[in-house]
Every structure is written in C-alpha cells, then in structure tokens.
Here is the input.
Amino acid sequence: MNKPLPSPSNDSSGPLRTIDIVSRGLTKRYRSERRFRRFGLAAIIASLVFLAFLFASIFLKGYSAFQQTYIRLDVSFDSEFLNQEALSSADYGGLVKRTLREMFPEAGGRREKRMLYQLVSTGAAFQIREMALKDPGIIGKKRSVWVPADDDVDMLFKGNVDRSGPEGQRRLKDVQLQWIDRLQAQGRIEKRLNKTFFTAGDSRDPELAGIRGAVAGSFFTLVITLVLSFPIGAASAVYLEEFAPKNRWTDLIEVNINNLAAVPSIVFGLLGLAVFLNFFGLPRSAPVVGGLVLTLMTLPTIIIASRASLQSVPPSIREAALGVGASKMQMVAHHVLPLAMPGMLTGTIIGMARALGESAPLLMIGMVAFIVDIPLGFTDPSTVLPVQIYLWADSPERAFVERTSAATMALLAFLIVMNATAVILRKRFERRW
Here is the structure.
C-alpha cells in the first residue's frame, strides 16, 4: 500500500522551500550587482582624476610659453654704421652690442661684456635687420625697439630661477641680476604675448622657437593621408562587404586586415623607409612620404570602421532596392553607401586623429631632422607636431620644457577638435531604423 507524500513543513529546521532558495539567491545577486556598479563608478572617477591630473600638469608647465620677456633698446641706426647700399649684410649684432654698452657703460672687460650681451636673444639682431630692410628711411634715426630677452632672463621673470641661491649654481650671475633689476626699475623689461611661438619655426634658442613649421608639416602630411586613405579604404570596404565572394581568400584578407590594425606603428615606418625612400628614392623628411606611411597605417582602421557602418544598414534597404529593379551597383551607390557614409566618415576622422598623434613611423623616414624653414609644399623638408614635441623634450634648456608642454596643448587641441567633429558628424547624419 502506497504511503501518502509528506506535506511541506513550516519548521525552520526542515528542508528549504524553493521560494526561500530563490529569495536568498536574489539577495546575493543584488548585492553583487551593487558592488559591481560601485567598482565601475570608482573606475570612472579614477580615470577622470588621472586625466584631470595629466591635463593640469601639462597646462601648468606650458601656459607660460604663451608669454615672452622683452627688453626695450634705444637703437641708433647711424648712417656711419649702416650702409644703405648693403643693409642686408650689415653687422646688426654689433649694433645691438653697442646699444647695450651705451646702456651699461660700467661693464668692463671681455667677461662682463659677454655676460651683458647674453641678456638679449640672438634674434634681436635679425629683428633690427628686418626693420632696416623694411624701412630704409630709419637710417640716421633713433628708435625704441622691444627685442626678446635670452631664455635665462625669461625663466627668471617666470619664476623658474631661484636667484637667492649661490652664484655658482645659477646660470645668471650677480652682476647680470643687477642689470636686470635696473632694466625693470626703468620700465625697460616686461612680459608680452609670445607671437613667435605661433609664427616661427624651430630654433636652437628657446625664445625664438615656434610651432608654425610643425603645424604646416602636419597639415600637408594629413592632406596626403586623407586624399589617399579615405577613397582606398571606403572602396575596399564596399567591395569586401557587398561584392566579394565568401571564400577562403576573402577570409584570409579579412584576417590580415584585422591583424594589420594591431601592428605597431613603427613597423609601417620601417616599411616606408625600405620602400618609399630606399627603393623609390623619394625625398626624406617630406610630407608626401609621411602621408604615404600614415596612409598604410590608417587603412586597416578605416576599412574596419567602414565595413561596420555598411553592416549597420538594414537588409530591407537592399531588398527594397533590388525589388524595384535596381542593379546591385545602383543599390550600393544610391541606397547603401549614402546611409553608411556618416559612419565611414567618422571612422576616417578617428583614423586621421590617430595619424596626427603618431611619431614613431615618421622618425624612421627622417622627419626628426632639425628644420627651421616653414614648409610651403608637399615635397619640402618638414617635421610634424609629435616629432617637434619629441625634439624639444630632448633639449637640455629649461625654457624648452614649457614649450614642450605648450606644443602638447596645441596637439591635444587638434585631437579634441577632430574627435568632436567625428561625434558631430555621427549625431548630425546618423539615421535610426
């Protein structure tokens, strides 16, 4: 005879009911979820703190580079000293030295005179030369000219030199500090906007160094990269996604494209050195070569982003176009490609932003050379902003530290603008189905 089944017991010492097991599991699950959310929030906060610390460090070191210390000299453009028939070859450096000796006649001996001359940048002679060539009528007259001070004087006025320390541990000697104090008391020395930083190329003297040459080189290099990488990358993505047959060869191509996106950038620099320079004989340090190398580096990124954008177009768009009699080419050109174009442009801009910040591949093709002149074309010797930052960071002068940070600020501003443009394009043209 079968015995009846035992009824569920309400005794706490009895077996657990299903609802109790589920409740206990839910409590544990909710607790784990809250803990995970706290960890995620903490990670985001830590990332923002580190990012803010990085930006603050760069800004605090670099903002002073946007100002430069200038000294006012009363220069006499004597006709006996300057010959109007040979103004371009006159001794303007001697003219600056004579003006300083007249301002401080007590400076005697070669050593003191040499220290006196060191108060003013070597660029003062070039500035006065430009004034004389621009207006020859200034010959025979006396003019007050604000010329850039030497980088050591500039660092003193920006608070980066401790003048209370022993003289042997300072680049500025006591007598130089006395001359500087006298200039300050006479109102002949002050800080002004450093226009040279935005209008000049590289220089051995920190007070004369600027980023214009590097910005121009970056512009020409990115133009070459954009003109080559976007059409090739978009066409490759369209073929692989819409026309290429699905077989082992296309699978191999896709795997290699994905692998190339993870290859270190310096490998592309070695490829450019071997192919474009050694084999084809293209000029070194030229934006055209840099653009070719960066094109090879950004193509995998653009192809992957473009294929993802094409895949996001609903199949119903393709089926509707083919259903009304459009050919496959018409379907892609008139319907799929316009809808995928915002995402493709976004991927291209992100790839260009990565190319703007690269330095390793460009170092391999010679764009690390010291170049003073501003490039005017795609084949002129030039450098780019990341390489310029690398060169200044390796310089021993203290004044180059602030210019390194200021150039980094300019590079970050360009990157932010490019990434913001990508976001705006996506928000502006993105369609939802």
Q: What stands out?
A: Residues 212-429 form a domain with the MetI-like fold fold (CATH 1.10.3720.10).
